[in-house]
Amino acid sequence: MKVPFSWLKELVDIDVTAQELEEKLFSCGFEVEELIPLDAGISKVVVGKIVEMEPQEGTHLTKCVVDCGEYGHDIRISTGAANMKLGDCVPAALDGSTLPGGIKIKARKMQGVESNGMLCSGEELGLNDDLFPGSEVYGLLILPEDSVPGTDIAPVVGLDDYIFDISITANRPDCQSVLGIAREVAAILGKPLHMPAMDYNTVCDADEPISVKVEAPDLCPRYMAHYVRNIRMSESPRWMKRHLALCGLRSISNVVDITNHTLLEMGQPMHAFDLNKVAGRSITVRRAVEGEKITTLDEKEFTLNPNNLVICDAEKPVALAGIMGGANSGMDDNTTSLLFECATFARDSVRKTSRALGQNSDSSARYEKGVDRHSPELGLARALHLIQELDCGDITTLEYDLTDGRPLERKHIVTTPAKICGVLGITVPDQTMIDILKRLEFTVDVQADGSWDVSAPLYREDVESFPDLAEEVIREYGYDHIVPTFLNTAAVTNGGLNYEQKQQLKTKRLLAAQGFYEASTLAFYSNAEFDMLHIPAEDEARKAIRILNPISENLSVMRTLLAPSMLNVIVDNLKKGNAEGRLFEMAPVYLAKELPINEHPHERQTLCIGAFGPEEDFFTVKGALEALAEGFDLTFTYQRETTSWLHPGISAAVYCNGKRLGVFGKLANEINAELEIAKEQKDSQNIYLGELDYEALMSCVEGELRYKPLSPYAAVKRDLALVCDEAVACGDIEETIKKASPLITEVKLFDIYRGANLGEGKKSMAFSLTLSDPAAEVSNEQVERTVKKVLGNLKFKLGIEIR
After folding, report:
1. How far apart are CA 551 and CA 368, in angstroms?
2. Angle at 692 between CA 691 and CA 698, to 5 degrees
3. Chain-centre distance for alpha carbon 18
4. How many other C-beta atoms lie within 10 A of the C-beta of residue 342?
5. Distance in angstroms (rounded) separating the CA atoms of residues 552 and 543
6. Between 499-513 and 618-631, two packed helices, what is the crossing angle to 10 degrees?
7. Residues 526-571: pLDDT tens digits?
8. Cβ distance 383 to 270 under 8 Å?
9. DSSP code of 12?
10. How confident is the model over 76-103, as a mean pLDDT?
């Protein structure tokens, strides 16, 4: 927000420089993004008085002798302008001077005559008529007759000023105005605040009745309006033009300028309806009807719905509430009567309408941060005062103040000095805190028991409890008073990671050793991600927490699965020409017990892995999982399971100690076909995904791993080629083999064969068995006995024969 230094001086007796004030504002929590001097880029430009002038023969130029005071009383400068006369005072850019835009002025010959500078127009100094009268005249800028030759041009034309570009945080909407910043400056400097005049007198009664009503008080908690007759359009006074120009606005007419000035000065957006254009002289604040249309002042047409709040006459919408007025009710040269409105609109309603329609304005920017319910009262009073001061119209006795019924009263916070100091961690003298709060327009009533009853100003809706008071105290008292100390429960440590962090780091390193790179995605996505993975409507994954005010619809729900985010990362890589890769992400998913939520969701830590590329296959992911299991001294088992987003024949569920950890497999063909990638990539690409419940995985880990000495006895290996039905799963065979004897320490599948000689619906699977005993050497008899038991169990339980 841009705040002119000169305007602040009108409201506060400032006795410090702009640079010192910038530092003081920063020290109490207001970031001045830029301090802009109006005379930036201007140097050695002074007042020059023309003492001689004559046409330069054969040219359009005029030779002038200029009195520039201490810089010289007879400086010769040629100019092409024709609007000056002898004795005029004009801006003179002398030899070696600079102008805005980096223009450098040097003495040079013009049409053969030496010119020692340049006489300037208002435009060349960066001025316009609103900043200084006559600046837009074609020719030289004519200065006041009493200007002193040789005086620096900046104070003469009002360029000896600064603009504070201040970043206003969302919790301080009361500072979205010159008055709001002036309040803070007055508190910082300990100076009185000179409130803008807001007194006015009604001079006549209404000639005709006007109807005003609010049908949506939840979206418009306060609506004020006042009828003004006999409107007299004319030019605004110079001071108002300058205020507007310093803030980047051009003057239009006195009445229009008053509404803009009130917005900048008081922070209260306001609008004026031309009652000659308001059907039925009726104003209603309501939700729009589906399909209703409005054309705003900038000539844009919008189709509305019930989510939009509008202000209507008896026939049509005449304004988008809090955003912009309609073209069908705006002022023009024929306006004779106006209804001035000031209101408080719900910030979320204005924000949603503004974003949905793509329509923004200075008013909507303020309403989106918040306008308190007391503000319309001040804003309307200030506007009516200006109407009377500038003699723009006759103020009638007809006024409206419609509210949602809530009383307008100050918030009261009962606290103690000890509580405030407890938040700050330092002791601030009681009287110092009281003085600070009073400078900020709080009231402090000290009770008999030593407690304080503090009431906040009506415009400070952000203040809720004593920690907020502590913030007010410390930003004025000074953050440099805070002494660094340990928390009461703090302890000095050597640093390092805790157990959970170590386990997470180990998991990541195990996957990195398998060629996987870590990915990081946002915690939000949209319902379209569930559709992308063909997740059924009744699936628990779709019970996602919806964001009330999302950045965009693409980030509107909290994720319940990591797989959609991983698939999007893979697709993005494929689009960018990365044809292969291995990725993993460890992050929380957000699971609500019920919707809508009434308590914090469970943030379950989840592990997702993805592999893509022509050479990748099912065993890439399975191998990574086996490496993970081995790293934590676990044993994973696998079972066939159907998941909507995985290929039914190339996917499996992962179990450990009877707990289901998750699923993995190849992306379903129908989903792969719908991906927004090139057809040849779909045909040649293999995409594999897996998602595990990391918390369930860690629950299977029994503390820290302990060293186990290697057996001094050699292990014995045996290979078995088995014939079984196609339906028999490898995991079932491995489990049956391992249960046959404690001597079997490892089972590995190393070959699968299918052929006509095996019979229809049959397959051959070859396993390598490792037998070992840490206490003794395994004898041949033990090996034979174990193999015989394995084959017996396989035949009895699974119907498997040795090949």
Report:
1. 14
2. 160
3. 30
4. 27
5. 19
6. 140
7. 999 999 999 998 888 999 999 888 888 889 999 999 999 999 999 9
8. yes
9. B
10. 94
The rounded distance, in Å, linking the Cα atoms of 706 and 633 is: 10
Give the residue-averaged pLDDT of 697-716. 82
CA distance 574 to 568: 10
CA distance 647 to 557: 26
Other CB atoms within 10 A of residue 550 CB? 14
The mean of the pLDDT values for the chain is: 92
Contacts of 682 (CB under 8 A, 6+ apart): 672, 673, 675
User: How far, in whole angstroms, is CA 686 from its chain's centroid?
Assistant: 38
Write out pLDDT tens, residues 427-462. Answer: 999 999 999 999 999 999 999 999 999 999 999 999
Tell me how far apart the alpha carbons of residues 787 and 803 are, in angstroms, rounded to a whole number. 14
The dihedrals phi and psi of 694, each to the nearest 5 degrees, come to -65, -35
DSSP 3-state of 147? coil
Q: Which of 533, 692, 502, 503 is nearest to 609 (CA)?
A: 692
User: 168 — phi, psi (to 5°)?
Assistant: -100, 120
Give the strand pairing for 517-518 and 581-591.
Answer: parallel
In 3D space, the residue among 497, 414, 410, 508 whose CA is nearest the CA of residue 460 turns out to be 410
| pLDDT number for residue 513 | 95
- The rounded distance, in Å, linking the Cα atoms of 237 and 389 is 10
Handedness of CA 6, 8, 11, 12 (dihedral sign): negative
Rounded alpha-carbon distances, angstroms, from residue 764 to 725, 795, 798: 9, 14, 14
- Angstrom distance (rounded) from CA 667 to CA 648: 9
Q: Is residue 252 over pLDDT 90?
A: yes
* 20 C-beta neighbours (distance < 10 Å), count: 12
